[in-house]
Amino acid sequence: MTGDLLRAGLAATASAPTQPALDYYVITPEAGAGAVRAEGLVVEEFVFSGDHRTIGLDTAGWRGDDRAWWSSAAFGRAMREDPELRARVVAVGRTDAEAAYRRLGGGDLPGEATLRDRFRDTLALPDSAPLRLGLEGGSGGFHDSRTYRVLFAGDLRLAGLARLAPEVVTLAENADDPRTRIAGTGGLRTARDEFTWELRRIGPGVACCVDLTARLGTTSDDALRPLLRILTTAIRHAGPIPVTIERFS
After folding, report:
1. How far from chain centre, in Å, is Cα 191?
2. What is the Cα–Cα distance from 171 to 169, expressed in whole angstroms?
């Protein structure tokens, strides 16, 4: 796998002077409807602990029929638990979100600082210390070794993943077989750190995850948050909706 694009994205995200971009979704009237047929907009952001685990989720939405913003932890949960609602949700970038908002009569989509003010009720996520699966600390010349799992609701959409993120995940030859648990792999080596990950199915059509192993060459873990963001965004735009990021070690 060629890591040049990943390294560039990692460097750009890590050096960004502002907060990471929000996650945008459009709500469509039926499953399979494209983003152009949006009837509403959802904006989200995870709340992180100091070691890059998710401990909360903020969700705000806007509908074209009443043109009013609302904040709802319950809706954020429903997007992940209700398969029918999830099928009507399409992940989009900021540009497409702006276009949908304008088409629905909202005018110019507010900036991200203003949108964050719409978050009023955070959905608390389970928070616990990492489960140590082996000896604490690093090995093989690395200062530290960690394992993270990015959990997604929904099945893998391999066609979308191959189109949107070929530089992030190399799909297995039999990835389209639902019995294949490890559907893809990826990796990145920087001057200091080594990262490898696996894209896994969890139950038929129910959920999937990215398991990331991070071997850190120094005490700094600055690259972890941007890389987790890149991986989450790539899979999110291929269909599944991120649920949480856990740290196992």
Report:
1. 25
2. 6
